[in-house]
Amino acid sequence: MLMEPLILIVDDENSIRKFLRVSIETQGYKCIDADNGSNAIMLTISQNPDILILDLGLPDMDGVDVIKKLRTMSQIPIIIISARGHDREKVEALDAGADDYLTKPFSVTELLARIRVILRHKSINEIHTEKENEIFKINNLIIDTDKHRIWIEDEEVRLTPNEYKVLVLLAKNHGKVLTHKFITDNVWGSTGIDDTQSLRVCMGNLRRKLGEDPAQPKYIITEIGVGYRLIDEQ
Question: Are 99 and 34 in the same domain?
């Protein structure tokens, strides 16, 4: 019998922890919780949860510092829930190693959907741990990283090397928000130069070749002021 996924909820407000715990456990998941950063780190090490839901405003340390400490010892998926809604703060948390970010107040339905996406990715990654070459299918888009080829339905799409790198990076992290810095560091390299404009141009050309309308995206979602994400595989 498969074990239920274990989710760690970290928030200094008891009422929020209880509400989230009830909402999540009704979906068949198990929950544990903590009210500060130190306990969050301790429980992550001792209980090895599948997902960490983390508030940034904790009494003993900032949530971003919790992320940084955990990333030295664990790759646990981290979903941020925070009242901090400024783009700079979202980028800081995502660059520190968070996987997703929801601003309070948020829809529990959306949080549960984000949890399902992360668990699905986690399961796929565990199955394909030894497999470097993958095929991704997102709606009518097919990305074959073995053959380095892209198709939309039966028509092959020709991309420049950087356009291909951006698309594959998004595909390997589909459903996850990637910041501008993360993408530019991985595609152009960490040069210390702000390549955000290069990324915007590249993304515009990539979307045009995919036949995508940015106002009604089928593949690439813009997280304004933060970065981009590829929708989850269908």
Answer: yes
Please state, rounded to an integer, the average pLDDT across all residues of the chain: 86
Q: Which residues contact 120 (CB under 8 A, 6 or more apart)?
A: 232
CA atoms of 182 and 31, how far apart (whole Å): 31
d(C-alpha 109, C-alpha 30), whole Å: 17
Q: Return the number of other C-beta atoms located less than 10 Å from residue 105's C-beta.
A: 8
pLDDT, tens digit (0-9, with 9 covering 90-100), for 35-48: 999 999 999 988 98
CATH number at 14 reads 3.40.50.2300
What is the model's pTM? 0.66
Collect all residues with Cβ–Cβ distance below 8 Å to 30 and sequence separation of at least 6: 4, 5, 6, 7
Is 1 part of any domain? no
